[in-house]
Amino acid sequence: MNLLRATLAVLALVILLPVPAGASSSDFFRTDGGSLRLVTTGLAGPDGVVRGALEIALEPGWKTYWREPGSSGVPPQIDVSRSLNVLSAELHFPAPEWHEDSYGAWAGYGGSVSLPVTFAISAPDRYSLIEASLFLGICEAICIPVQTTLSVEPGSDPDDAGDRQFVEAAFARLPAPAGAHFGIVEASVSGEVATVAAVLPGGSGDAELFVAGSEGYVFGIPRKNGSAPGEIVFTLPILEEPKSGGAATIAYTLVSGGASVSGDFRLP
What gap in Å lies between CA 121 and CA 41, rounded to an integer? Predict the structure, then answer.
């Protein structure tokens, strides 16, 4: 029975009707392996931005994916097209770790994680309703696709200090911007392989690289190809590339010595 239930779970989406609005943060949506909640800081600022965090609370042994999960994974996705007075939403990602299973290596989180979100509000001085349609995968022995909609009324509970602190803590865990002393400084392409060189802080000679394919590029797992104090080189198998050619901007996260940065580099 358990095997049948697990098999059916892979084939089905877990769907929940929108949580009734009425607070600046949603209730938890519960599913096998964990629960989801959308927390916000309340009213939009003068710039029309509401800051939030998608809390993915996982049970022990469960995992979820980074923005680029590999060929068989499900990246977290958010759609706010059914919202009121909301232009867009963008998920942000803390540094992931590498995981490996029968499908291969993939980037993700080996436990609970909070993904910061920025919502762009059309008219900050008017009422808005966030209807956040979410789609992501969570995994134990198998991976389950999860879909739900969480509803939030920004500003309906603007004085909740606990929610504000939760969101601020989620943003504080994001990688710092890459720079001249920590980040990728050179990238090139030869045949079906991209080579990137990075500088590292504190004379470190080890790092992990996570790359998000874009603009027609799809990459394999980065491989270390030489290092020295304060620098490292990676090779990236190019699995797919733009048919029309031309330069592309590739987003990455680089982790070294417990610190992380995010940025982008240009190919070719």
Answer: 13
Tens of pLDDT along the chain (268 residues) come to 333 334 334 434 444 444 444 478 899 999 999 999 999 988 888 899 999 999 999 999 999 999 998 767 889 999 999 999 999 999 999 999 999 877 788 999 999 999 999 999 999 989 999 999 999 999 998 889 999 999 999 877 655 788 889 999 999 999 999 999 999 999 999 999 999 999 999 888 899 999 998 878 889 999 999 889 999 999 999 998 887 777 899 999 999 999 999 999 998 7
Q: 87, 121 in Cβ contact below 8 A?
A: yes
Say if pTM beats, i.e. exceeds, 0.85: yes
Q: What pairs with residue 65 in β-bridges?
A: 108
249/247 Cα distance (integer angstroms): 7
Tell me, what amino acid is at 176?
A: A
Read out DSSP for 202-257? GG----EEEEE--TT-EE---EEEEEETTEEEEEEEEEE--TT---EEEEEEEEET
Residue whose structure tokens are 């504000």: 164
Query: Tokens 């096998």 identify what position?
Result: 32
